[in-house]
Specification:
Layout (H helix, E strand, L loop, with lengths): L6 E6 L2 E6 L6 H9 L9 H20 L5 H15 L18 H17 L6 H5 L5 H38 L4 E6 L2 E7 H26 L1 E2 L16 H13 L5 E2 L3 H6 L2 H27 L10 E2 L17 H24 L2 E2 L2 E2 L2 H25 L5 E2 L1 H10 L8 H4 L1 H14 L3 H7 L9 H7 L2 H4 L6
Parallel strand pairs: 5-6
Antiparallel strand pairs: 1-2, 3-4, 7-10, 8-9
Helix pairs in contact: 1-4, 2-3, 2-6, 2-8, 3-4, 4-6, 6-7, 6-12, 7-10, 10-11, 10-12, 11-12, 15-16
Subcellular location: Cytoplasm
Organism: Nocardia speluncae
Protein name: Fumarate hydratase class II
Length: about 475
């Protein structure tokens, strides 16, 4: 903080602390700001929102149970709603690399809510009222899981569905556009461009299914377990009632009270699981993006099978060069997600006895992965997939020129003779058909009509069976 910053004095159980005069946070938040100047990165917006939603829900339940008087409860509920709406994100300054339980950020939320309430004329205490019936050990992981579930359902799954539909449109458009298949990056028997894009469509759909399959575990919330899972200082049924309130306010019925509160606080396996599903989506998008930029490579020395949209100049020194920038962005996001998952897996193993103490970094990585995948999937569909055009003539020429189209002749002339045909055709730069004729293989076992039928590259794709 600069020397010109004006301060006020706040107090906590450890003594006095100087806090910026206009800050809504108080002493415990300020101590954390000074203790953890590490990355300059705070909580994800989704988690700040979730903390606001959770604090409001807890106040509702405490009010309804007669533990918190109505005036204080309404002040907490109103202040928490402002946080959930994003009106005070700048009041959450604590670095993500902090105490492993997230206690600092939980107290940050408590203090900001208390200050907002005070500004509105109500006196509430951060611990006694805002944090009533709660512990950082159940609130911070609850907010993390709530944020992740909401982000998957409301952000990532719609973005992936948008991408899936864009790929499906291309699969339908190119149903009969024949091309050379490739295995090991070498020529293989023909496929259609539509079949390839149908495969990409299914990859995205399967990724969505994997994410949906994680929600029953990810949606289990530890609220109500308080410090170690026993529920000390929380009334009976508190967790279930808070979850019901969160379901009501968010409309997300994938949320549930933890089946076992000791598991729900000692381990973060639900985050590890969803991170693995996010990594799989990233791997799928990498494969799709790589195929598309390979097919768009050129314009003269590459495959030249697809034309990608021209989005921006590609070089500061080579005039006219255009690069596959969206596929490159996709693969960079994927690299980040894979790295995030490695950190989440490592952190997930850090559950010691009754508490995992890597929750903030797990939360940041999972929520960042969701945010990045959602954003890049939408862009990939809108600024790349929708604008792809197929060079159909070149695709067919390459398919018909491939020595692999000799494969349907195996049953007529035998595998070894077919291999000889393929090698001769490649060596002499002739078509497979001409080489078969040159080798005198057209006769009783193979008529010219049968040869043409077997060498029809579109029929080799079995497209009529799809």
């Amino acid at each position: 903080m600069s020397e010109q910053t004006q301060y006020r004095i706040e107090r906590d159980t450890m003594g006095e602390v100087r806090v910026p005069v206009d800050a809504l946070w108080r002493a415990q938040t300020q101590r954390a700001v000074e203790n953890f100047p590490i990355s300059g990165r705070g909580l994800e917006r989704a988690q700040i929102r979730a903390l606001g939603l959770l604090k409001g829900a807890c106040a509702v339940v405490n009010r309804d149970l007669g533990l918190l008087d109505a005036e204080k409860a309404e002040a907490v509920i109103a202040a928490a709603a402002e946080i959930a709406e994003g009106r005070h994100d700048d009041q959450f300054p604590i670095d993500v690399f902090q105490t492993g339980s997230g206690t600092s950020s939980n107290m940050n939320a408590n203090e900001v809510i208390a200050s907002i309430a005070a500004n509105n004329g109500a006196t509430v205490h951060p611990n006694d009222h805002v944090n009533m019936s709660q512990s950082s050990n159940d609130t911070f992981p609850t907010a993390t899981h709530l944020a992740a579930v909401e982000a998957v359902i409301k952000d990532l799954l719609p973005a992936l569905e948008h991408l899936r539909l864009a790929l499906l449109d291309k699969s339908t458009e190119w149903r009969t556009v024949v091309k050379s298949g490739r295995t090991h990056l070498m020529d293989a028997v023909p496929v259609t461009l539509g079949q390839e894009f149908g495969g990409y469509t299914r990859q995205v759909a399967a990724g969505m299914e994997r994410l949906l399959a994680t929600l029953p575990r990810l949606g289990e919330l530890p609220i109500g377990g308080t410090a170690v899972g026993t529920g000390l200082n929380a009334p009976a049924g508190f967790g279930a009632r808070v979850v019901a309130e969160l379901v009501r306010t968010t409309g997300i019925d994938a949320l549930s009270e933890a089946e076992d509160h000791f598991e729900a606080q000692a381990a973060r396996d639900g985050l590890v699981e969803v991170s693995g599903a996010l990594r799989t989506v990233a791997v799928s998008l990498t494969k799709i993006a790589n195929d598309i930029r390979w097919m768009g490579s050129g314009p003269l020395t590459g495959l030249g099978e697809l034309q990608l949209p021209d989005l921006q100049p590609g070089s500061s020194i080579m005039p006219g060069k255009v690069n596959p920038v969206l596929p490159e962005a996709v693969t960079q996001v994927a690299a980040q997600v894979v790295g995030n998952d490695a950190a989440v897996a490592f952190a997930g193993a850090g559950g010691h006895f009754e508490l995992n103490v890597y929750i903030p970094v797990m939360a940041r990585n999972v929520l960042e992965s969701i945010r990045l995948l959602a954003a890049v999937s939408q862009l990939f569909a809108d600024r790349c997939i929708h604008g792809l055009t197929a060079n159909a003539d070149r695709l067919r020429t390459l398919a018909e020129s491939s020595p692999s189209i000799v494969t349907p002749l195996n049953s007529a002339i035998g595998y070894e003779e077919a291999a000889a045909v393929a090698k001769q055709a490649l060596r002499e730069e002739k078509t497979i058909r001409q080489t078969v004729v040159d080798r005198g293989l057209v006769g009783e076992k193979l008529s010219e009509e049968e040869l043409d039928r077997r060498l029809d590259v579109l029929s080799m794709t079995n497209i009529d069976k799809d």
